[in-house]
Amino acid sequence: MEQLKHECGVAMIRLLKPLDYYAKKYGTWAYGFNKLYLMMEKQHNRGQEGAGIASVCLRKKPGTEYMFREKAEGKDAITEIFSRVTEEMAGELYMGHLRYSTTGKSGLTFVHPFLRRNNWRAKNLCLCGNFNMTNIDEVFQFLTQQGQSPRIYGDSYITLELMGHRLDREVERLYDEAREKGLEGLDITSYIDDHVEIANVLKKTMSHYDGGYVMCGLTGSGEMFAVRDPWGIRPAFYYRDDEIVAVASERPVLQTTFDLQYEDIRELGAGEALIVRSHGESHLEQIMPPQQLSACSFERIYFSRGSDRDIYQERKRLGVQLMQPILKAVNGDVANTVFSYIPNTAEVAFYGMTDGFRQQGYQVHTEKVVWKDIKMRTFIADNNERNDLAAHVYDISYGSLRPYEDNLVIIDDSIVRGTTLRESIFKILDRLHPKKIVMVSSSPQIRYPDYYGIDMPRLEEFCAFRATMALIEERGMWQLVNDTYLACKRELQQSKEHMRNCVRAIYEPFTVEEINDKIVEILRPEGMRTPVELVFQSIGSLHEACPDHPGDWYFTGHYPTPGGTRLCNQAFVNYIDNKQKQQS
């Protein structure tokens, strides 16, 4: 319902045959670009702030351009950049990226791919990724201590410089090796191009990082790679045959683009890299030792396309497992209850929810109660008028239930900030005069910030946190806040490897139901008459539904990396410091 800005989408293709092979077989010089375009459009859900592409042509002679890049901003960026593609840009290597900003930085400067130029083909590096690093300050300090001076303070640019530095050292190693073998002139260049070990570069680069990532890259000499973080936080899938090697953030993208079966596609392992050499040979290599698997569960609940075979079944299971708490909320009166959902990502969980009731012998009455209209332009400056327009983003099906007789159960994939509930959903549902509204979330309460790619960086954004702080104030428990604040400050003085998440303490005195009731009180619009109850997925049920994606830090506060824990403690300190400034 409340659209979250999320980690980005990546797409890569390596053509393994001569270019004229694809022109003859598929009837166009643009085969690679056409496939890249389709892969990017099929991942449009992962980024609408900007997009970029890059290509490398290995047949170009010195003095002509061989590495191309195009970038654009806005929701139509994909169409814009592909409208600029020319036959000259066709090559053997292709890379695409879709961006959602997760750090508040916007503008064409921050749109991927990032390109580092050099007169040596092998030293040219183009990077894009789906990532957010939690320790960029440490990496920046490492670079500056080596004498470098990055032009921009951001994880993308700093990663480009760090990896570019390691690539330079790898090329220089090969130069010395070639000289020792008695090679001269262009033979040295050919030796370097043929022997670059990207695994060396990746191992010496990625060992510096704490965060969730899929990092993708191309070099001017024809190397291609995709590497996944050691915790498996961010997703990546790949396919190989005798014509292509392809990588994408989601499995169905590869299935649709290349007409493949589920079994044809593999998932990149935690800490693993897919590397394609300059002549097209590909292999997998473990770059970082795998850590405890923490694959992002929000990918399964919300972000990834529901057309994935496994995700579709997982979302249905999430719905099934909500049956008992919903039954309790409507006092067992299924006969006088209408079931519906918030479009669009909650639809599959809705099917699972209603299937669960039917499997237990209930007759379920379903309606499409809520409709999402096209995005309205809130161009009027006055805040009150803006809120009034925002309230009309959703509409309802009038006559879809019996006023004052039917309960209304509405399922959504998540309840994050609660703004849309307060400004729109609750107001319009109240017009239908249901006996009771049961608002259901197929995910648990979101209590903690995410620092690995989802745009949820501040505690006060979450309605669960605001409700908990309201309960603390209501019950005069400010000693708990002070103790937590001091504990967070102490932890920030510790080495991050031994740091605890002290923010978890503020939730401990309260039950989920107590927090739910306070959320309703906070979000309930003035004048609303219908009783409301919230139902959230339990942590245990989440893990039963998505057993291979145990990453749950936004629900539990158990961050997989030290950097995440450090930033969460810092977020609470910042929250209290800001509150004190406002009160002074």
Question: How would you sum up this structure, described in words?
Answer:
With 584 residues, this protein is α+β, with helices and mostly antiparallel strands. The protein has two domains: 9-136 and 198-293, 4-Layer Sandwich (Glutamine Phosphoribosylpyrophosphate, subunit 1, domain 1), CATH 3.60.20.10; 298-583, Rossmann fold. The chain contains 20 helices and 20 strands. A hairpin with an 8-residue loop joins β5 (114-116) and β6. α5 (155-180) packs across α7 (198-206), α10 (309-320) packs across α12 (347-359) and α15 packs across α17. The two termini are 36 Å apart.
Q: Which helices and strands, and how do they pair?
A:
Elements: E1 9-15, H1 19-26, H2 31-41, E2 50-56, E3 67-73, H3 77-83, E4 93-99, E5 114-116, E6 125-133, H4 136-145, H5 155-180, H6 186-195, H7 198-206, E7 211-219, E8 224-228, E9 237-240, E10 244-248, H8 251-258, E11 266-267, E12 272-276, E13 282-286, H9 297-303, H10 309-320, H11 323-329, E14 337-341, H12 347-359, E15 365-366, E16 370-372, H13 383-390, E17 394-396, E18 407-412, H14 419-430, E19 436-441, H15 463-474, H16 478-491, H17 512-523, E20 532-536, H18 539-545, H19 553-556, H20 562-583
Parallel strand pairs: 14-15, 14-18, 18-19, 19-20
Antiparallel strand pairs: 1-4, 1-10, 2-3, 2-4, 5-6, 6-7, 7-8, 8-12, 9-10, 9-11, 12-13, 16-17
Helix pairs in contact: 2-8, 4-5, 5-6, 5-7, 10-12, 10-18, 15-17, 16-20
